[in-house]
Design a protein that fits this description.
It contains ten helices and seven strands. Strand 6 and strand 7 form a beta hairpin.
Length: 343
């Protein structure tokens, strides 16, 4: 760590001195100078170069709070320019005041006349340094954005595959076909309705898995089909109360609501005497809440947290808010932040 700091300081010193010599030469100066003149130029250049190069450290501190190159590029560039202009102007004024007014004892009348070219060149150097800082910051943000999108895309595919796999696995088909066989013997019309709902469910499932987000109404309509199929199987042992207002202007990740209902069914006991009660609602904090009474199965299927983790990651990426899981001895609750599309 100390070695890196020493290297960085040495680099700033060398670069500052070189810039000072080159600038002085380009402004009509001569390389044939006294040692005293070179030492003065070096001291001036270092005292100016250090705070100007520290611009980058100041920018890093501010960038995390006020700069967003991807979503708010115009606001970010204006914020960065104002910040760097104010900081650099202060540095240029203080350094020039000290070296020319205090060390060389110049008066204000001669200050601008003699040092106009120096100050202008310093602002040009500031613009170059600022442009480099902005470019590095932008490409860093762009690279992180691309990386995050790829991660979310990968997680989305994993979640969609898992949900689709769960629905077409032999257990689900076997249970559905058993229900259908029983209905054919008991109620032909209901068997026809069940077959139609099962067909519609799979059609919507194949459609939903290719979407990134859907409206709250679409998601609720889809989960109602899933609940219908499950209630035919479990009867009054499964009770679902949907009190969410479908007209709320919010979006959700497709299949997320169905996944949470399925998760409750998979991990809890249910019977006519002790039904599994699931509530789907919208909280005051604009969250989609799925809550069920807790009566865990004594023998569980091999648990997998992949689905919930992927779901949490995708909602946090899209909304900037966390998916909250609350659990106690009586209930299990998952709160999903609804996705609001910026107009």
């Amino acid at each position: 760590m100390k070695t890196k700091i020493a290297i960085r300081i040495s680099t700033i010193i060398v670069v500052s001195i070189l810039i000072g010599i080159v600038t002085s030469f380009l402004m009509g100066g001569s390389l044939n100078k006294s040692l005293e003149a070179y030492l003065w130029n070096a001291g001036y250049s270092i005292s100016l170069g250090f705070p100007l190069f520290m611009n980058g450290l100041l920018f890093d501190k501010v960038a995390s709070r006020f700069i967003d190159w991807i979503r708010k590029p115009l606001k970010s560039i204006l914020t960065a320019l104002v910040l760097h202009l104010a900081y650099s102007s202060l540095v240029i004024f203080v350094v020039n005041w000290f070296w020319f007014m205090i060390i060389l004892d110049q008066n204000w009348e001669n200050f601008w006349t003699w040092n106009k070219g120096t100050i202008i060149s310093e602002y040009i150097i500031f613009i170059i340094i600022a442009a480099i800082i902005y470019a590095i910051s932008f490409f860093k943000a762009w690279r992180e954005e691309v990386s995050q999108k790829e991660k979310v895309k990968s997680e989305a595919l994993a979640l969609q595959y898992k949900v689709l796999q769960d629905q077409i696995n032999p257990h689900f088909l076997f249970n559905s076909l058993n229900v259908l066989r029983s209905l054919i013997d008991l109620d032909v019309e209901k068997a026809k309705t069940f077959t139609g709902e099962l067909s519609t469910f799979y059609r919507d499932l194949l459609h939903f898995k290719n979407l990134d987000i859907v409206s709250l109404k679409e998601e609720i309509d889809f989960v109602k089909k899933y609940i219908y199929l499950q209630q035919i199987r479990f009867g009054e042992a499964l009770q679902v109360d949907i009190i969410a207002n479908e007209k709320i202007d919010g979006k959700v990740i497709p299949l997320s609501l169905q996944s949470l209902v399925e998760n409750a069914i998979k991990h809890n006991e249910m019977s006519m005497a002790n039904p599994l009660k699931i509530v789907i609602a919208i909280s005051d904090d604009y969250e989609l809440v799925v809550e069920n009474n807790l009566q865990p199965k004594k023998v569980l299927e091999q648990p997998s947290q992949t689905g919930l983790k992927n779901l949490a990651g995708r909602y946090e990426y899209l909304t900037g808010k966390e998916m909250i899981i609350t659990k106690n001895a009586h209930y299990f609750r998952v709160s999903l932040p609804l996705i609001r599309m910026e107009g």
